[in-house]
Sequence to fold (515 residues):
Amino acid sequence: MTKFGSSLQIGRRGFLAGSVALAGLSQMPRAAQAQPQRGGTFRLSVNQGGTSDTLNPAEASGSQQIMVGWALRNNLTEIGSDNKLKPELAISWSSDDAQTWVFKLRQGVTFHNGKSLAPEDVIASLNLHRGEESTSGAKSLLAGVENITADGSDTVVFSLSAPNADFPFILSDYHFQIMPVSADGALDMSGTGTGGYVLDSWKPGVKTVLKRNPDYWKEGAANFDTVEVLLISDSGAATTALVTGEIDAVQSAEYKTLGLLGRDKNVEIESISGGFHPTFAMQSTQAPFQDNNVRLALKYGVDREALVKQVLRGHGTVANDHPVAPSMPFHDASIEQRAYDPDKAKFHLKEAGLDSLSVALSVSDSLFAGAVDAVTLYREHAAPAGLDVQVVREPGDGYWSDVWMKKPFFTSSWGARPVPDMIFATAYTGDWNESQFSNETFSQLMLAARSELDEGKRAQMYSDMQVLLRDEGGSVIPFFRNFVYARRADVAHGEDVASNWALDGYKAIERWWKA
Fold:
């Protein structure tokens, strides 16, 4: 049996070979405080969320929900600050065939209400995302799970319909937080968890207050006495609050103010490269986007290099209309990069029977720093091709509930996933298939790659999928944006900083401290 514990190893057939690629994610060198210290209040601003947010992890999407959820709860596995898969509530996992997975649970862990962690908590928490009635955004990630059972008091067994080489990675997804279950089988979704903080007050869209859990099982973690999470959608306002000392860290720093921030000795700026990317997503089942020539015209109508230079100020890299970043396993750098070409855009418009086209593209400042600037510049790029991209500025509060997947053409943003299958299954075939992309070959390749244990064959399948999305997908993906955030100089962290999400993988609340 191939076993994996606190030091993830590669199985004899290499079916977790993709995990080692995470270690290659690049990041800027930073000074770090070697030893965590306890105490103080950490005031953090996030820019994604709204008054309709809940503590139900099945409905989590923006940074407000994800960061608060992970402060309160844990998963079976996690992506560590070193960007490697690590055990969390599970201490080990093993499989002979990548189809039956056995997870051993950590002993001595209790929920905030005093209940001891048990297999039934894991089973109920994950079953929340399964079945026909589930509305979870991560439902598709567990579609291949046929059964979850307990084996004694410390073991959970997952039976899959087919081998899945990436299954331990999947359980690190932010939706799959573990909650306590009562004797009648009801899940406690009020915020009770095994995490480093206990919920003091929850005012979604405004402010959340957390208090340190004195019984947290992780050593050297959850060091702040109190954490305040504030939703500040305006990056400029958040940056001003950071400079004046009203808050201690911002999720996304304004590119325009980086020079000024860099001269402030009380502020530290970090630019971490990874797989975060925006999408200009078209509803491919609606006119005019059901015509692939229209989709291609809009893809050729954006100058990616200009966006990276002018909007990101160099804090990113060009993308190729698929979500597999250079930092991810199975990224195929040999695929020809699509370049800005108004003539080709005109050609595809003509093939669609059009001389010109006017479309409205929704965007919000809350998506990421520079989001509105990016869409505005896209409008300028597209104009010479006969494409009139109208910029529709939407409010941040309610964007994910009222605009995303509701409007025909909208801007979205996606954090990195550790392996391609997770982003493909979530954003291109599952309930969060925002562009309504449908391609039978793509779906077949996804299932085949998930089950394939030969790394070379998997690489070819994932390459073919990247090409299909580039050439037929309903999303313009112009660049991979660095996570650019800032903190007060008296806030410290370890030598490594995760690059799967902003703010140390959205776990700054647990991993950082006041120096």
About this structure: The first helix runs from residue 63 to 72. DSSP finds 15 helices and 23 strands in the chain. Residues 1-33 have pLDDT under 50 and may be disordered. The radius of gyration is 22 Å.
